[in-house]
TrEMBL record:
<dbReference type="GO" id="GO:0006950">
    <property type="term" value="P:response to stress"/>
</dbReference>
<dbReference type="InterPro" id="IPR006640">
    <property type="entry name" value="SprT-like_domain"/>
</dbReference>
<dbReference type="Pfam" id="PF17283">
    <property type="entry name" value="Zn_ribbon_SprT"/>
</dbReference>
<protein>
    <submittedName>
        <fullName>Putative metallopeptidase (Zinc) SprT family</fullName>
    </submittedName>
</protein>
<dbReference type="InterPro" id="IPR035240">
    <property type="entry name" value="SprT_Zn_ribbon"/>
</dbReference>
<feature type="domain" description="SprT-like">
    <location>
        <begin position="4"/>
        <end position="142"/>
    </location>
</feature>
<dbReference type="Pfam" id="PF10263">
    <property type="entry name" value="SprT-like"/>
</dbReference>
Length: 147
């Protein structure tokens, strides 16, 4: 899905579910790692994690969630999650309760045997080659259950 298609989808959802136009920018942001989407209070733009485009129901839920922030904020409300206005409007349009958080798939956790600093990695580290970047201590692999 392109940025243009995302923009059109956000505009369409805004008209269909909120009866109001979306007049700012929506775009994919590769740098979003663990968040599904964000609404920017200053620019009023919405950016979306490109991974969300894999599932249209998920994507729609996130767009609705961010549009609740958008329309409440433009109407003079705080647009924070814990307000009655937020909960009510979100329920009305059927948006995701939470902008879904994506957990990175870390398979290995290493801990420095000297200072205790932890390093999460998706791949195995060669511990004879890599040492703690803070204290140069030896790294040990923790059992999976510990993190
Ligand atoms: Zn939110
Ligand atoms: Zn260390």
């Amino acid at each position: 899905m392109s940025n243009l298609e995302l923009q059109q989808l956000v505009e369409k959802i805004s008209y269909t579910f909120f009866n109001k136009p979306f007049q700012h920018r929506a775009y994919f942001n590769q740098r979003l790692q663990t968040t599904g989407g964000r609404y920017h209070l200053r620019s009023h733009d919405i950016d979306i994690n490109p991974k969300m485009a894999d599932s249209i129901p998920n994507l729609t839920g996130i767009i609705k969630h961010e549009l609740v922030h958008y329309h409440l904020h433009l109407a003079g409300y705080s647009g924070k999650h814990n307000t009655p206005e937020f909960k009510h409007l979100l329920q009305q349009v059927g948006g995701s309760r939470y902008a879904p958080r994506l957990t990175k798939n870390y398979r290995y956790c290493y801990q420095c045997s000297d200072c205790g600093r932890q390093y999460n990695r998706q791949r195995r580290l060669n511990v004879t080659k890599y040492v703690c970047s803070r204290c140069r201590g030896r790294l040990v692999l923790l059992p999976a259950a510990k993190f």
